Amino acid sequence: MFRKILIANRGEIAVRIIRAARELGIATVAVYSTADREALHTLLADEAICIGPGKATESYLNINAILSAAVLTEAEAIHPGFGFLSENSKFATMCDEVGIKFIGPSGDVMDTMGDKINAREQMIKAGVPVIPGSDGEVHTAEEALAVAEKIGYPVMLKASAGGGGKGIRKVEKAEDLVAAFETASSEAKANFGNGAMYLERVIYPARHIEVQILADQEGHVIHLGERDCSLQRNNQKVLEESPSIAIGKTLRNEIGSAAVRAAESVGYENAGTIEFLLDEASGNFYFMEMNTRVQVEHPVTEFVSGVDIVKEQIRIAAGQHLSVKQEDIVLRGHAIECRINAENPAFNFAPSPGKITNLYLPSGGVGLRVDSAVYPGYTIPPYYDSMIAKIIVHGENRFDALMKMQRALYELEIEGVQTNADFQLDLISDRRVIAGDYDTSFLMETFLPQYQEKE
Is residue 293 flagged as an active site residue? Predict the structure, then answer.
């Protein structure tokens, strides 16, 4: 086992990793920007090193500064958390080159799964269902028209080398395709140096289902069931739950097995998530992408599976076998996570950084967990994401979990900054959410317009 690890992140995920490491008897090193000098992860770690100014590009995205901190403190491994450098293949490779274990997959595997066309081709070889689309890159509008005619409208144009929402266009009909292709391709070339596109048929509305997998260095791969992440605003997850109300035992086995095949096909190591779209009308599911890191919403899976995913990540990186086998995994009860952000729903969810003057996080009772890195008097800096806390509940069944979350949100008190807590309470109390009658279209097209009208 490692003697010391460095956490290349901040906020609640850095605190989460520090706590897991301490329970494993491992010393921790925090890195921080000047804006995070008084941050909780900085205060909790055994050692802390400043790696630059507040801007993420000069601190948490500064590979050389982070590696220098690891070498200076003699850290044997680096946990990247999520966001920042967690899916940066260059960073993973450089860790390996300087003899520091990257707690995650190799840079080569990241590159394979990060390239959308390569990932798609790999999934087809592995027998994992993919969304009907183009076979490889599409370089001209004429090629795009031919493919769209074959797979049917609406279609989604996506940049081959894309990311961050750049180079993506939804096209409803043939007469709009040429203009959309040209603008998306130009945008992709300007942002990524590559104007090549590919097409997929739009599966919408659908359920956004993701499957948590774990894989050790010996090639053992298991899944820990699925999470339903269909409640999204502008493609950003708002609330997640496990298991999905839309999935029965047979489909759970099918989609879990597909996720395991996907990971096995690329020689995956560590924790990862395979994301699918589920067409409830047909019962068909399709591979979307793989996240080669721990997810924000991993606690709901920990609650229902009983597996500590972060500890398992560290053990895997240290060369240990998975501590559980597939037959050991039994999903018990139901878990829900709400993301509490410093943002103002009345003004299009604008970020609301500032000083937290008063804070009461819900507590008490079995099956309630709050992951946070804030405290009374803490000032939320304007440079990073706006998450204040994740409230996670676990109940004997879905209704029990829903009621427990309502209770927790009623108790939550945050003063000094605007938050989305009341928005989350209204969402979790909505009769359609309670009934599980929602998909990826619900929040933006149904709930939010009604919420804004009420406000």
Answer: yes
